[in-house]
Amino acid sequence: MNSIILQTATRVLVALILVFSVYMLLRGHNYPGGGFIAGLIAASAFALFAMAWGMEAAQSALRIPPGNLAVSGVALAGLSGLMAIFYGDGPFSGQWLTLIGAKEEDGIVISNVLFFDIGVYLTVLGAVLTLIFALEEAS
Amino acid sequence: MESAGDTESRNGDRKTPGKWISLLAPIPPALIALSLLYHLPDISAGREFSFGFTWVSELDVSFRFYIDGLSFLFALLISGIGFFITIYAAEYLRGNPLLRRFFLYLYLFMIGMLGLVLASDLITLFVFWEVTTVASYLLIGFNHASAVARRSALQALLVTALGGLCLLTAFLLLGEISGSYDLQALLTKGEQVRASSLYIPVLLLVLIGAFSKSAQLPFHFWLPNAMAAPTPVSAYLHSATMVKAGIYLLARLHPVLAHTEYWEWILTCTGIATAAVAAIAALRQTDLKLALAYTTVIALGTITMFLGSDASAAVAAAITFLLVHSFYKAALFMVVGIIDRQTGTRDLTKLHGLAKLLPLAFIAALASALSMAGFPPFLGFIGKELKYEGALAVASEPALVGTAAIFANAVTVTVAGMVAIKPFFGPPPVDISCIQRAPPGLWISPLVLSAFGLTFGLAPDLIGGGLVEPALTSILGLPETIDLKLWHGINVPLLMSIFTFVFGVFMYLKLKQLRSWLNWDFTHAPTNADVLWDKSLEYLKSFAALQTRILQNGIMRRYLTVIFVTLSLALSYALLHTGQFSLEFVWPNLNLKEWAAVLLTVGGTFTAGAASRPLVAICALGALGVGITLIYLFFGAPDVAITQILVETLYLVLIAAILPRLPVFSRSKKVRFRPRDAVLGGIVGLLITVSILVVLQTPFESPVSEFYKEAAVPEAHGRNIVNVILVDFRALDTFGEIIVVFTAAIAAVTLLGHQLRRGKQ
Amino acid sequence: MEGPLAVVVGILIATGVYLMLARDLLHYLFGLVLISNAANLAIFIAGRLTRASPPLIPEGQEAPQIVVANPLPQALILTAIVIGFGLLAFALALIAQVYRELGTLDVDRMRIAEPVRPKRKKSL
Which residue range forms the structural domain that includes residue C42? Predict the structure, then answer.
């Protein structure tokens, strides 16, 4: 597809969609969203890019091979799950750490659950892109 | 052996195992035997040992062992004879590159046997039973380059494994009846088991297991074939182990299953029939090893016959004879092995005059054969006297049992002559130069074992009180005393002995005539079990091929049809079985937008089903995806709706990417309507709908969902409950799921990448 | 409310089965899509439908004060959809590869592993 309108629009759109996917990822714990959805959104951004500019352009825009993305996602999710062991809990149980402030409500809260969700995000993104690229490349 | 060794040594630069292995190999069995002997006084005093741990507490299965008189006797035989076998085997197989493997198998077998006789839990016993089956397969097939050895090994494996399966069933039934798999507890519940309605099935299954292992009719054919094994293995399997496992089982379960007419008649008749068939077969053999193998079957038949009775004299005869048999049979097998190894043949008609060349082997053979023939003052004589005493004590059929015992013993005398006299006397062999003297490693074991036969014969008290009595006590449950002695005075057993001896010697002298008389061809007789075995295997194979042709016909649509038909049948059965459910029509209270979503879905589905062009179908799938997304959205599932619509989008992207490669635009083919498939699809769909409606009629309770709702904020600090479930409560599941997605991607890449690489070549 | 959706599931399944029994592998794939959608929908219905709010808790509250939809089936379906996507993408790759290798999408002509008439050996 060599549509100039599409190509021009895609440049802006892809950036916007990626930012939106991160937004969906981070708000996922409290509102609709989360790693699966955000990963799919990000993947569709690259799919759109690939449609407009071609596979090779999409791959070079991604910079990282999608397979590596998926591997690091699985690793991140696994590690964040195992982290709970160091706190004496069973694996994959949530651990919460308040960084600033005494109470949870007014501090910045960091948790392994967030990292787990990021792992899911990366895995879904990487796996879906791997599939799309592989199928496109083959044809 | 030699051929296997040659190929192996040619194949690799593997070093021939050194001398250390022949020095080290006998140590483990010796240690076991010595530690058992250390406890001999305790056992004689009637004490019992028990050790182990709980294995599967939920099923009440424990890995527990138990030593009483009976298991002590067997364990001592296994480790003691095992000690002599290892010495012998190390020399016999000297230079074989697979010697290490041989000892591995042998130890595995020994462990299996020890575990079997010591187990105090039925399941543990079964596990070790199977260990011996597998180990015997490996040992019999040790010369794996020989097709005969492989066939014999497989036959032994299949026959004994079949028995093993029956045995497992029997054990599970016994566990059901008595409420526990514990052997000691079971032994006290004989009355309960015998009164149970399951007694007959249990009895038959146990007997199939024991008979298959101990080569009783109709499973006797595997044992002579197992002679394909190296001689040390035969000596071990036949004297103290494998075949005695079935005997052990019969003796062990005697308190539980015996004392009924069924037990008595089945065991007595099977034992007599086995002994008779084996006796005739033994006389026909010219191969020394095979002749010995058949005398083992005779001996096993005799022991089985005696175990059928609950008279203490008969059981005493069985146990004593078992002990006696182990000594002389192991020794004789080893002697035959020496002859075979030094002269290169086991053919009776070719062997003569070896006495001067193999003097020590000759002494061992003579002593063992005299014991086997039941000649005083050897232990065999005591065994035989006891057998006759026992035969007369059998309540039901003393005459029949007595006659069988005389015949079996007479044949044994004849075979003893065949083994110990025929090869050693007569003119010296022609090619004397190529026969070497046997090294000490070969003759020491048979010599010591045959010396045991003489020592214990002269001083029977050495084994009488310490070994036999506790074993008898274990079987019969009452404290038993046994008086083993050589001279009982002139009585009926002695007269029977003399008659047996005369009869046996007569048969030995007339062996040639006897053989030609017996030599009408057995191999073509329909009753030949070995032929039947081959036939049945053949039928099994062709049946397998037939059913593969029918079921595995290679047409995927038929497989799918079978699957869907099975699904429909299972669903209908489940629905009919559930019974009451009422389907009443209520006009659904959907509002307009919900109707729109439903109609969109249904319309998309039908279009996809009827579309003749792929592009139409893909568009229809998109429409139906949107419809389902709307349904999710309208019924409170925004997360699912978002995911669904995204996946639909990506799916379209993928299909768009792949379509140019497929022959979808090239021809517009007319898709024919297939009424049969439509009917099947309709039935499956209808059944699924009805099933869902039935499920919906059950009262709804979801404590899990309620818990998630309550705990999401306090425990997981998240207000999107679905996401909290995914990343916190059920994070482990989610982790598994992303791995699945990841794997699918890797698999697809591998699949396509494989083709890419080939394309480049 | 659940009734018509159960019928929708039935229709999806029926059409899916019909398509899977076709000779064309692409039809088979479409059938698979329909059936996996049907399975998701069936789980959704089994958790009971409600027009109420999605399973979200308003800020500042410990637990939902009003009736909300059942979150458990939603979590199950969400992952199932993504996994279904992986499965279907893999199936697509497989189909592409099959066509490349065999030159046909007719399942009745894919007889490499199980040839039409296996030669019987006399002796096994």
Answer: 2-51+68-109
Residues contacting residue B190 through CB under 8 Å, at least 6 positions apart: B255, B256, B257, B259
* Domain chopping of chain B, boundaries: 261-519, 583-666, 705-761
CB contact under 8 A, C82 and A138: no
Q: Is C102 an interface residue toward B (CB < 8 Å)? A: no
CB-based contact B247:B308 (threshold 8 Å): no
C68 three-state secondary structure: strand
What gap in Å lies between CA B113 and CA B104, rounded to an integer?
14
Residue A97 is inside which H or E element, if any?
Answer: strand A96-98
DSSP state string for B525-541: STT-HHHHHHHHHHHHH
Residue B705's SS3 state is: helix
Angstrom CA distances, B605 to B199, B466, B609, B616, stand at: 60, 84, 6, 11
Q: Is C52 exposed, middle or buried (0-12, 13-18, 19+ CB in 10 A)?
A: middle
Cβ–Cβ < 8 Å for B756, C100: no
- Which whole number is the average pLDDT over B287-310? 87
Give the C-alpha separation, B738 to B168, whole Å: 42
Q: CATH number, domain at C6?
A: 1.10.287.3510
Any chain C CB within 8 A of the CB of B606? Answer: yes
Q: Say whether A91 and B646 touch across the interface (CB within 8 A).
A: no
C119 Cα to chain B: minimum distance (Å): 11
Look up residue B466 and give its DSSP letter: I
The structure tokens listed for A12 are 């802006």
The tens digit of pLDDT for each residue in B681-714 reads: 999 999 998 888 888 888 887 788 888 877 777 7
Q: What is the pLDDT of residue B443?
A: 85
CB spacing of C93 vs A30 below 8 angstroms: no
| Neighbour-count burial of B675, counting CB atoms closer than 10 A to its CB (0-12 exposed, 13-18 middle, 19+ buried) | exposed
Residue B674: name the closest of C8, C49, C15, A70 by CA.
C15
Identify the chains in contact with C, defined as 3+ C-beta pairs within 8 A.
A, B
Selected residue of B645, B738, B749 to mutate for chain A interface (largest A Cβ count, 10 A): B738
Answer yes or no: is C39 within a domain. Answer: yes
Residue C116 lies in a domain: no
B494 Cα distance to chain centroid: 42
Rounded Cα distance between A137 and C88, Å, is 18
H/E/C letters for each residue in B665-678?
CCCCCCCCCCHHHH
Rounded distance between C-alpha atoms, residue B751 and residue C93, angstroms: 7
Q: Do B719 and C87 meet the contact criterion of CB atoms below 8 Å apart?
A: no
B611-627 confidence digits (pLDDT tens): 877 788 888 888 999 99
The answer to whether the Cα torsion of A34, A35, A36, A40 is positive or negative is: positive
Gyration radius of chain C's alpha carbons: 22
Query: Could you tell me what percentage of chain A is helix, strand and coil, using 3-state DSSP and rounding each to the nearest 5?
Result: 70, 5, 25
Cβ pair C79:A127 closer than 8 A: no
Does some domain include residue C46? yes
d(CA B289, CA B291): 5
The answer to whether the beta carbons of residues B377 and B344 sit under 8 Å apart is: no
Beta bridge partners of B49: B67
| Residue-level pLDDT at A80 | 84
Question: Which chain B residues touch C66 with a CB distance below 8 Å?
Answer: none
Chain B residues within an 8 Å CB radius of C63: 709-710, 712-713
CB pairs under 8 A between B and C: 276
Q: Where are the domains of chain A?
A: 4-138
Tens of pLDDT, residues A83-100: 777 776 667 776 666 555
Domain count for chain C: 1
pTM for the predicted model, two decimal places: 0.65
DSSP letter, residue C106: B
